[in-house]
Amino acid sequence: MLVRCLMLLSTSLLLQSPVFGSELNDAVRDDYETHLAELFDYFHRNPELSLVEFETAKRMASELREAGFEVTENVGGTGVMAIMKNGAGPLVMMRADMDGLPVEEKSGLPNASRKQQQSPISGETVYTMHACGHDVHITSLVGTARQMAARRNQWNGTLMLVVQPAEERVLGAKAMRADRIWERFGTPDYALAFHVFSGDVAGTINITEGSPYAGADTVDIIIHGVGAHGAYPHLGKDPIVLGSQIVLALQTLVARELPPREPGVVTVGSFHAGTKHNIISDTAHLQLTVRNTNEETRQLLLNGIKRIAVNMGRAAGLPEDKLPEVYVVKTLWTFSHLI
What is the model's pTM? Predict the structure, then answer.
């Protein structure tokens, strides 16, 4: 699968060449067997969380320099930019994300990650894992860089490689743009990227017309209540009961308010409240992810979440200054079609 991912990016720029076919396929396979397989194992064993991808960035910078690229490190934090100029022609960007997730790997594979790292967000020490395929992405970018460098006589233009941090927290791309990458390195004429997907048959590549992925919003709901002893619930306002009612009511947004042919997802991924068996908490915290493919649906879902949460609070008898608060804390969405 990794070899085919490399082929996808490499051939995107080499289509003008009539000789890239079987020879390139053999070269990619040989490079995988002699170099990239070991590199992939290194990345998979050593994942790093968003914003602290220090060793991953160093290794990527080293690999790309060795391939002949001009490399700039510490772009937007831990980001890496690599440039190869090869005469007149388009500026083509290839991008790969490099951060791992706070997940404990239990695959039992020889290259399984057992690494732990302190989260820069929570401060907790957690297991880390490349559970979203970013180890494949950055290994593929290195392989593509090596093949493109070896075939400079078959293409013209400038190749820009972007190694992006903190994709999982939707912070890295913003940080790199805030670091003026377009002004410093040029605005690309074309941009290429891909994402592995475990739901596909191994060895296949999917190309989608239009938007290949949904937009995503991250939503927090803070539910206020009135704390009380668990034996005297009538003296309080239980935010756990109210939160449970909100979770159930949110399921009607997609099921009953969205047209059947319109895709949308509202998932409650986290529900935190309370500290002890016999104490009614005074707050609860829900964390949601919201997915959709157009702005109209996005607004319907976000407005519906706020409407349901606030009015469920009113139905529970909360005063206006205690009603649930809804925050759209992180947004990642674009609905423009692919070039």
Answer: 0.77
